[in-house]
Amino acid sequence: MGIFRTVRSVARFSPSTLSRRQRQLSRAAHIGDLRDMAKSHLPRGIFDYIDGGAEDEITMRRNSEAFAGYEFVPRILRDVSNIDTTTTFLGRHLSSPIIFSPTGFTRIAHSDGELAVARVAARHGLPYCLSTLSTRSIEEVARVSDGPKWFQVYVWKDRELVKDMLSRAASNGYDTIMLTVDTAVLGRRERDVRRGFTLPPTLGLGTLLDGITHPSWTWDFVRHDPITFANISGAAGRSAGTAVTLSDFISEQFDPALSWSEIDWFRQNWIGNIILKGVQSVDDAVQAHTVGIDAVALSNHGGRQLDGAPTPLQLLAPVAHATNGHLPLLCDGGIRRGSDIVKALALGASVCTMGRSYLYGLGAAGEAGVEKALTMLTSEMRRTMQLTGVRSVAEISSELVQITEHR
Ligand SMILES: Cc1cc2nc3c(=O)[nH]c(=O)nc-3n(C[C@H](O)[C@H](O)[C@H](O)COP(=O)(O)O)c2cc1C
User: Fold this and answer.
1) How far is the centre of ligand 1, averaged over its atoms, from the C-alpha of 15 (Å)?
2) pTM (2 decimals)?
3) Between 356-388 and 113-123, two packed helices, what is the crossing angle to 10 degrees?
């Protein structure tokens, strides 16, 4: 009898109204779980396009591992009942120091694509940076977001096309551009090479099988509008829907001759903030400061461009020192935990940006997955602040971290 009473007191078998995916999402504990969900839900070629990096993926792995190279110097007995994660960046008040990095071709992760990410960012008052190579246009994103909007610029050989995108961005309320400067040519992403990955994805025998074994992604994909480079439809001498390898497309269209002298051209054609994205050395950060760039994103494109590039985290302190703390810095790459954000801020970042973290969420469960990724990072950040004894972003200083001695 005792045994039944005990079982009855602990059993909770109420019928679940949640779908299997919703249940998995509600149980996901951290970004790694969202990655696992995305991995099982997406066809392998699509998952690898998102998850992969250049060549041996050493830089990609080190971006995340670098955070373990630092540990906290926690302080105690500091009344951490109220935690303030808000901050100000480039004149804007943000609910937390988190920005959504630009990612091309977002709709292959989920049909809601850029619109889902922009809606989540807007709900939390955080900037969403739309990629030049997005699959929803500047105008479509503006229609769903009244939050802070940035536009990421790849510099095309055809400058009239760039000028046109800048003026469309300005008239649709985007106030900041991120000029990506690490993509003179495309890094060699060998997972995509092996899978013959094209944008948009084409149907061959391999992709067909991949699609059949991932039916819910395939059903979502075929039911919605064809995926195209939405900002450049009809431009660049080809139909934006033509399947092409990304590396061919970039070497045809992007200008490898881009140099410092052209920053003036951007100043003349853009009145908002200019952030250089892809700065990978102290000297270039100093030069960016000297020519009046508003902020730099220390970034190696999430390890997708130069394998062997330094990690954003290791550049933070030397760059902050060389620019006397006067140049706002974004730490872009490898952020998978709220504690990563706190470490980056302690080393001199003003804000952190995330790419794959929200893409894993999008691939796992659409907009709800993006929301979940952000909630995970912000709640982890808040808890880390409480456990380290800092109550506000302003209180996070270099004294909060030290190099981990024994790894
Ligand atoms: C699938 C994917 C597509 C990306 N597309 C772009 C892009 O179009 N423009 C760009 O500047 N950066 C692009 N990036 C780089 C991100 O903006 C960001 O630098 C990178 O994802 C940061 O590293 P993380 O993924 O570890 O957070 C892309 C990254 C991924 C994973």
Assistant:
1) 41
2) 0.95
3) 20
